[in-house]
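Reopening this ticket.

The earlier resolution said the output was attached, but the attachment link was broken on my side. Pasting everything inline this time so it's all in one place.
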Amino acid sequence: MKFNFHPFSHSKGKAVFLLVVAYIIGAGTRTFINSFYPSSKTQETSSSGNSWGLSFQEEGKRPVGNATIEELSKYDAYFAQDTQEKILYLTFDSGYENGNMPSILKALKAHHAPATFFVVGNFISDHPELVKRIVADGHTVGNHTLTHPDMSGISSKEAFQKELEGVENLYEKLMGRPMTKFYRPPRGIYNTSNLAMAKEMGYKTFFWSLAYVDWYADNQPTKEQAFDKLLTRIHPGAIVLLHSTSATNGQILDELLTKWEEMGYTFHSLTELVSA
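Inline output:
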């Protein structure tokens, strides 16, 4: 639907105009959030197919993505594992550090839980010792691009390579070895051309089958809200997306991992998934 707005010459017209604008802004905000991360029982997916989305249809079961496991496999891409075993894969998106990473790493170590941290270029530049600790603890550092752009807007192979190779170079300079070629598109925005480019560069692309709204640093969910999403939606073969900037995640992770263990789940590395 297209709206054409024109100036109103009287107060009633202005009031109607403002109400319409408020509605569109509100709807746009909801669409933005729902396109990238699950925040309700059933989540709508983008009709254009370039924003990762999920629909949770049954508690404890793998959600429906806007691409299937089989469709993604053509591009060495994943959002979950097709299994009935109670295994899950922990991943964290790390755009910057705000003090929550130590608690997260402590909880992971206590549960012998391997994780993949998808980092942006500045994370390596600004926190080299933290990157070294992540690796020393047995975790994997993945590629979340150099500058966190909308990758679906990048059409040239050279520009796409620049975003990924920029992170590779920073990592190799710091660690003295190549980084593992695991890639996550910023905000889950992608197109099949991007996926093909990533595959050509030797990358495995990872979306997710479980996440919640944890990325607003100044508006964090409560413990109860986090558990309501993360415990009821966990499922066999889940790739879990959390943000390392979340204070809630830092506070609840030890208890969350304990609860998942009590439910019968075990933690595995994405390296195991791609070699399965």
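Reporter confirms the inline version is readable. The two ends are 46 Å apart (CA to CA). DSSP finds ten helices and ten strands in the chain.
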